[in-house]
């Protein structure tokens, strides 16, 4: 009889403790859900990319440069519903940005463009990194998006500068002057050994 009372008492204590744990779990889950909703709301508000070309040169190059067109198209599609959708979009943007280096049009295959592409890739990969952290820092994600927009605008402005410079006519004799100033074509200034045979 004593054992039945003890077992009954232990079962009551066990059920009471389980009930408290489940209530704590429910409270924690609700708190976590609110945190995720706030995180999603902040990222959703800040996810604004400039996905249209800013000048005529960029518009024309989008027709020829498929990687740039693909990146701008990816930027124009905003994810919806979940943080996971934003994470997938950031990963896709990272892949599209890296592809910019693969097939640069001949006219833009210059160090100025390559450096701007490299910084754009870095910023997009930062976005991808920040959004894939275990504890997502929404302030860092929202902060890097305008930086990506600035780098994208800088790339398009540099493309425009290259096109404008290529339209400037070359003056008579300018190409010969550039050849004369080219140090790789210069005659070496080594002393001549008098003992070497010469061809005259």
Could you explain how this protein is built, in words?
The protein has helices at 2-46, 56-64, 66-76, 83-99, 111-131, 138-167, 174-181. By secondary structure, the chain is mostly helical. It has a domain at 47-167. Helix 2 crosses helix 3 and helix 5 (111-131) runs antiparallel to helix 6. The chain is elongated.
Q: What class would the helix/strand composition place it in? A: mainly alpha
Shape, per Cα inertia axes: elongated
The largest sheet, given as strand count, sense and whether it forms a barrel, is: none
- Order of helix and strand elements from N to C terminus: HHHHHHH
> What's the β-strand tally?
0
Ranges where pLDDT stays below 50 over 5 or more residues in a row are: none
State the oligomer: single chain
* Total helical elements: 7
The helix fraction, in percent, is: over 70%
Mean pLDDT: 78
Radius of gyration: 32 Å
Q: What is the straight-line distance between the termini?
A: 128 Å
Please supply descriptive tags for the structure shown above.
200 residues; mainly alpha
Topology, please?
Blueprint: H1 2-46, H2 56-64, H3 66-76, H4 83-99, H5 111-131, H6 138-167, H7 174-181
Helix pairs in contact: 1-6, 2-3, 3-4, 4-5, 5-6
Brief rundown of the structure:
The chain is 70% helix and 0% strand.
């Amino acid at each position: 009889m004593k054992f039945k009372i003890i077992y009954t008492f232990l079962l009551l204590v066990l059920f009471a403790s389980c009930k408290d744990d489940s209530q704590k779990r429910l409270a924690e889950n609700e708190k976590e859900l609110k945190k995720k909703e706030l995180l999603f709301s902040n990222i959703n508000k800040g996810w604004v990319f400039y996905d249209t070309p800013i000048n005529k040169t960029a518009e024309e190059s989008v027709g020829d440069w498929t990687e740039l067109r693909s990146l701008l198209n990816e930027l124009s599609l905003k994810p919806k519903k979940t943080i996971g959708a934003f994470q997938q979009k950031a990963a896709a943007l990272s892949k599209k940005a890296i592809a910019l280096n693969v097939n640069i049009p001949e006219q833009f295959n210059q160090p100025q463009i390559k450096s701007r592409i490299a910084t754009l890739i870095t910023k997009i990969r930062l976005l991808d990194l920040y959004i894939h952290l275990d504890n997502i820092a929404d302030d860092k994600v929202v902060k890097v998006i305008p930086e990506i927009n600035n780098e994208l605008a800088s790339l398009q402005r540099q493309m425009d500068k290259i096109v404008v410079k290529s339209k400037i006519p070359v003056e008579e004799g300018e190409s010969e002057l550039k050849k004369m100033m080219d140090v790789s074509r210069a005659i070496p200034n080594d002393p001549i050994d008098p003992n070497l045979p010469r061809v005259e």
